[in-house]
Amino acid sequence: MSDAEAQDILSVASGWRAAGEQVAIATVTETWGSSPRPAGSQLAVTVSGKIAGSVSGGCIEGAVAEAAMKTIASGVPQLLDFGITNERAWEVGLACGGKLKVFVEKLA
Amino acid sequence: MTPELLAALNAARAAKQPVVVATKLPGGEQQLLPDPAAPADLAAAAARALDRDESGTVKLGDTEWFLNVYNPPMRLIVVGAVHIAQALVPMAAYLGLNVIVVDPRRSFATDARFPNVTLNTDWPDEAMDALAPDVRTAVITLTHDPKLDDPALDRALRSPAFYIGSLGSRKTHAARLKRLRELGHDDAALARIRGPVGLNIEAVTAPEIALSILAEFVAVRRNAPMASKEAPKAAA
């Protein structure tokens, strides 16, 4: 992602980590159909509830943040699938009808 | 991601170096590229991703990698520290462009009018030679003054700049093309200049004109169908 806006998320995440926060980073790795954010788009989230950036138009950020808490607790990264062929779609609901994969990792 | 890798990535970005973070899926092992110690196939895939400016997953042997591309910001060279530039520059910065304003007229090119912007008060041909536009550079002339616009456009046409725009009415633009032809630029070269610059959204105010120019810039950058408008005809 070469957009300055997307790249600033990493500076923000770095600052949070330096301030003692527990941080996870989620990154879109693949998209199919009408996904609003391209591969490389990133979201940083902290245990304390801070969020920067985005991996979708807002439809999956809640689920990604929830998964991020698990990854922060376990230290194990996750590769999440979102989309109409996935059961999670019923929980999360991709209004756009697109599909995407999101990699979630702990900043540690 | 380790704090060390993040620090190295942020340092590379600050130094405007093109880099790729390669992540092994689904395990998450990572490395920063280019790296002389990297396997040749991974290094080549990273170089291709940088060249295309596109992040994505690749399969190398049995391993799936996600390659996240961090190219330095595109550059926008604005010739003419005029009123429209004052609207254009902050919008372009918000789009993530690295903006340089060129204008030898020091009463126009002031820090007060352009706070936090790189100003170059050399004559446009010298400024353009020093800035050396590349394939990730856009050049927009706004002065309406042939003495300033023409040398900038001449240099832009001799460069691989991916977007060249010039403010001015159809009549002004036709006269401009005629002058540039006399400098040795042929039809194919002249067709690279977007003039009148910007998408036709009937823009009137300076911010509206800035918006139309940047909308066209995005259309060109993203290969939108509307970017391939009919090439302007050079005046005979």
Explained architecture:
The complex is a heterodimer of chains A (108) and B (236). Chain A has helices at 4-18, 61-74, 88-92; strands at 23-32, 42-46, 51-53, 78-82, 99-106. Chain A has 108 residues and is of the alpha+beta class. A five-stranded antiparallel β-sheet of chain A has the order 3-2-1-5-4. In chain A, strand 2 (42-46) and strand 3 form a beta hairpin. The radius of gyration of chain A is 13 Å and the shape is globular. The two termini of chain A are 22 Å apart. The mean pLDDT of chain A is 84. In chain B, the strands form two sheets. Chain B has a six-stranded parallel β-sheet, with helices on both faces. Chain B has a four-stranded antiparallel β-sheet with strand order 2-1-4-3, sandwiched between helices. Chain B starts with a helix and ends in a 15-residue tail after the last helix. Helices cover 38% and strands 20% of the residues of chain B. Chain B is built from eight helices and ten strands. In chain B, a hairpin with a 4-residue loop joins strand 1 (19-25) and strand 2.
